[in-house]
Amino acid sequence: MGYDITMRVWRGDAGGGALQDYVVDVEEGEVVLDAVHRLQATQVGDLAVRWNCKAGKCGSCSAEINGRPRLMCMTRLSTFEAGETITVTPLRTFPVIRDLVTDVSYNYEKAKTLPAFAPVPRDADGNYRMAQVDVQRGQEFRKCIECFLCQTVCHVIRDHDDNKPAFSGPRMFLRYAELDMHPLDTNDRRRLAKDAAGLGMCNITKCCTEVCPENIKITDNAIIPLKERVVDRSYDPLVWLGSKIRRRDQRSEPPPTPPPTTR
Amino acid sequence: MASGVTTAGRARITARTMRTDRWWLLPAVTVGVLLAFIAYSTWRAFEGAHYVAGPYLSPFYSPCLASSCLPESSHFGEPVGSWWPLSPALLVLVFPLGFRMTCYYYRKAYYRSFWASPPACAVAEPHRSYSGESRFPLVFQNAHRWFFYAGLVFNVILTYDAVIAFRDGDGEWGHMGLGTLVLLVNATLLWLYSLSCHSCRHTVGGRINAFSKHPLRYRAWTLVSRLNGNHARYAWLSLIWVGLTDLYIRLLATGTFADPRFF
Ligand code: SF4
Ligand code: SF4
Ligand code: FES
Ligand code: FES
Q1: What ipTM did this prediction achieve?
Q2: What residue owns the CA closest to ligand 3's atom 3?
Q3: In a domain, B78, yes or no
Q4: Is A207 close to ligand 1, i.e. is its CB under 6 Å away?
Q5: What digits encode the pLDDT tens for the residues B189-206?
C-alpha cells in the first residue's frame, strides 16, 4: 500500500545549495534509498546520489538522515513517525561534489600513509601458521565496509577541518589496531599511530562506535587497546624498561608512507 | 573563514546539527548526576565527622590514616600523624578521584557533557581549536593505569572493611546488619568497576599478540573483556552506591536511623 512522505533533500554543489522540500510516494517496507530513487525517477532526474548494493554491504550510500550519519539503504521508512519530515543531507565532513555525493578521498589518502602488513618469513614448508585465537580480535575489524560514517561523525575533523592533516580517523585506527595485534606482523606501529595518525586527538567519545553500521566496537576494541599500547611504548617507563631488559617487543618501527602528492 | 561543518567546500548548511531527537537529554542528566555527587562528596569529605557507626566505616574515610581520625576508624594506625590540618578523608580521596577522572568511560562522559566536545554525535562543538588528549594537560590521561593499580589497593581495604562489618560494635564476630550488606555490595561493585577497566583488560592480556602461547592470560582477558562490555554500567552503579553507603553510615552515626540486624 502506497503512502506519501515529506522529504527535505539537500541539493547543490561546492558553490552553494539548499534543502528542497518534496512529497514522495512510497510503499510499505521501503528504505530511505528507495524514496530517494523514487524522487529521482519521478521528480528530479538530475539528483546525484551514490549507491551500489542496496544491502548495507558496499558502504556507498552514506548520508545524514535527520542529522544522523547513516546508510540510506539500511534506514527503514517505518522507523519515522507518521508525518515526520525526513531530511537527507550529504556527509557534512567531506567536500561536496553534487547533491548527496561527497568527495571521500581524504580517507583513501589516509589509508595510503599506513604501512602495509609486513609478515615474518614463511615456515620451512612454505606456510604461514597462526592460531584462530590470535587473529580473532582483528576479524571484527575486517567487517568494515568502508562507509566512512565513523569518519564523518568524528568531531576531531568534522568540527575542525584544520585537523585533517594530522588525524587519520577511527576507520584507520581499526587498521592500525588490527596490524599491531597481528601475531605475524613485524612492524611496531605504536609510534606511528600516536604521531602520524594522531591517535592522541581522539578523546574516546565513541560517536564512531555509535554510527558504525557493522556494529564494530571501534572505540572499545580498537582505539582504547591501541591507546594502551601507545602508553606501553611512549608513556609507561616501567613497561619500556621491561621491554629493554627482557629484549621483548623488538619489532622495527617503519616510517610512515608519505601520501602521494598528486590530487 | 569558518571551520567545522561550515568549512568552505562542504555542503552549505548553517545549522550546528540537523538532529531532531532530544540529543541534549543524556549530557544534561550526566551533568546533573555528576554535580550532585561532587557536591555531596565534597561536603562529606570536609565535614570530618559522622563517618563511623558501630563496625561500619564510611568508604569516604577508609583507610583513615591521620591522628585526627576517630579512634574506631584507625584500622591501620595513624601513619600520617597529626600535622595534617584538614579532614582525613582528603588524604585518600585523591586516589579514587584520580582513578575516575582518568577512566576511559568517565572521560567520554565528561568530555561530552561538561566540555561539549562534542555535546552529542553530529552536533557541532563550540570550541575553536582542538587537540584532544595529545597535549598538556590532557596527555596525562595516559597515567590511568597507575590509578588503576592504586584503585586495587583501595578495593582490598574496602573489602576488608566489609569483612570486619561481620563483627558487632564490640568487636565480636558473628554479626550482620543491613550495614554489612551495604558495605558488601559496595566492595563488590568497586571490584566489578576496577576489573572491567580498560587498563585492566590491557594488562591481563590485551597487550599480548600471540594469545595461543598464553592460554591462562587469554582466559583472563576473555573474562575481563566480558566485564568490560558493562564498564559504563559499573561506573555509574559503583559511584552512586559509594555515595549511598556513606549516606547510610552518616544516618546511623547521627542516630537518625537504627541499623536493622540480621543476626
Ligand atoms: S571515539 Fe575518537 S575516533 Fe571515535 S568519533 Fe570519538 S573522537 Fe573520533
Ligand atoms: S568502521 Fe564501521 S562506520 Fe567506519 S567505515 Fe567501517 S563500517 Fe563504516
Ligand atoms: S547501497 Fe551499498 S551500503 Fe547502501
Ligand atoms: S576505570 Fe574506567 S577505564 Fe579504567
Answers
A1: 0.95
A2: A56
A3: yes
A4: yes
A5: 999 999 999 999 999 999
